[in-house]
Amino acid sequence: MKKKAEKEKGKPKGIGAKSTDRRPAKNVDTKNVGKRRSPSQKFGNPKSQASGSKKSGTSEKREGIRLNKYLSNSGICSRREADTYIATGLVTVNGKIVNEMGYKVNLEDDVRFDGRRIKPELDTYILLNKPKGVASTTSESKGLTIMDLISNATPAQVKPIGRLGRNATGLLLFTNDDNLVNKLHRKGMERLFHVELDKNLKFEDLQKIKEGLNIQGKDIMVEEVSYVENAPKKEIGLKIKHMGNSVIREIFSHLGYDVVKVDCVTIAHLTKKDLPRGRWKVLTSQEIELFSML
Predict the structure, then answer these.
(1) Structural domain boundaries of the chain?
(2) Burial 76-93 (b: 16+ CB within 10 A, else e)
(3) Which of 106, 121, 243, 286 is least surrounded by CB atoms within 10 angstroms?
(4) Up-side HSE of residue 204: CA atoms within 13 Å toward CB?
(5) Which CATH number fits domain 39-117: 3.30.1490.270, 3.90.76.10, 3.40.190.120, 3.10.290.10?
(6) What is the DSSP secondary structure assignment for residue 148, as one 8-state letter?
(7) CB-side exposure of 132: number of CA atoms within 13 Å?
């Protein structure tokens, strides 16, 4: 069979699982690249935040977002219902009851409804197929970044889970769901990579990787490793749970190989099917629900 250097719509055969999601990908809005809103633009300048809350009728001016909109954005209720809850004293800001209509809060404020802390936005999940040459950072001083590519995907303050090097390609997952982020960092997140080396990987080195390596006193275990079917022995399928972006190069450098290409083919149950380079999609409810099984 004919070799494919990059499998845009699949994965190294014999490793990983198939996707059932056939939703079309969304295009990147290049007009808005680099124009994402900062937290201060969305919620006001944190430096102007006043401490505590005031009694109804105060003339104090706060920048930010109206409290009733903050509640409705969280998905708890409508804005009209939020007014009722605020008036009846069910909402606190930074530990104090606020019943002032039009009161404004900032992103870092501790807002609670009936004692439970809430977020100003619904949980959002974005999957990006990262192209080469894009920095995997949230910093605005690194040129074109992954945050620029998803700038028109959602107004929610999402962040990437895990990282890819600037010249690496493939899947990155973004979310503002802190519970999922903490879960994945605690348990690990399986990612399948298609790795191309500068020379063929010796079978004995493949076995060493499979059995686990100790690099500078650190044990590194992989979930699966194999040669890519119908491809030269320098193309490897590697499944790991590590969240960083340097562990792959550490593994092969330790064994005397240079990594030429790295492509993240799957994340957990998510694949690149119908998701070309540089495009993103919002996860379906079914795809999100499958994370609860991890």
Answers:
(1) 39-117, 123-293
(2) beeeeebbebbeeebbbb
(3) 286
(4) 2
(5) 3.10.290.10
(6) H
(7) 6
Do 282 and 124 form a contact (C-beta atoms < 8 A)? yes
Closest Cα to residue 38, out of 109, 173, 139? 139
Going residue by residue through the chain, which has 294 residues, state the pLDDT in tens, using 9 for 90 and above. Answer: 444 444 444 455 555 444 444 444 444 443 444 444 444 333 333 333 333 333 333 334 456 788 988 888 887 888 889 999 999 999 999 999 999 888 999 878 999 998 888 887 788 999 999 999 999 877 666 689 999 999 999 888 899 998 899 999 999 999 988 889 988 888 888 999 999 999 999 999 999 999 999 999 999 999 999 999 999 999 999 999 987 778 999 999 999 999 999 999 999 999 999 999 999 999 999 999 998 887
Amino acid at 122: L
Measured CA angle at 11 (ends 9, 15), to 5 deg: 155
C-beta atoms surrounding 117 within 10 Å = 9
Residues 104 and 72: their CA atoms lie apart, in Å, by 14
pTM (predicted TM-score): 0.66
Phi, psi of 254 (to 5 degrees): -60, -30
Q: Are 192 and 228 in contact (CB under 8 A)?
A: no
Q: How many angstroms separate the Cα of 240 from the Cα of each of 8, 193, 210?
A: 20, 8, 11
For residue 99, the Cα-to-chain-centroid distance in whole angstroms is 36
CB 33 within 8 A of CB 144: yes
Q: Which helix or strand (DSSP H or E) is residue 226 part of?
A: strand 224-227
